[in-house]
Design brief:
It is built from 3 helices and 4 strands. By secondary structure, the chain is of the alpha+beta class. The protein has one domain: Alpha-Beta Plaits, CATH 3.30.70.100. The longest helix is centred in the first third of the chain and has 16 residues, at about 20-35.
């Protein structure tokens, strides 16, 4: 079972005038930089097979505070300001209890 934490799933699309290939390089570098952040143990980008301009970012932070700190870091600010992608939606989640339970009726 994964450790508890603060999980983020974000759907993004490549912005014009960037090519998908250029943006993919930038997104991969951004994920690598995120994985070096204190409090971030997971940061990966999944590229949509049906629409290569669509990426899903999957991140895990030790806490909400670590996720909030992420937005203050220079590599995050540079990535946002470069305009590589457009954020469509983001979900912030936590793992549910790992103990199996019988459904109640």
């Amino acid at each position: 079972m994964e450790e508890m934490g603060h999980f983020v799933t974000a759907e993004v699309y490549v912005n014009s005038p960037w090519s998908v290939e250029e943006a993919k390089v930038a997104i991969d570098a951004f994920c690598l930089a995120m994985r070096q952040e204190p409090g971030c143990s997971l940061a990966y980008a999944w590229q949509d097979n049906a629409d290569p301009s669509r990426f899903i970012l999957w991140e895990r932070y030790d806490s909400l505070a670590a996720h909030q700190q992420h937005f203050t870091l220079p590599h995050t600010q540079a990535f946002i300001q470069a305009g590589w992608v457009k954020l469509i939606r983001a979900f912030e989640t936590t793992l549910s209890d790992d103990e199996p339970k019988e459904p109640t009726r």
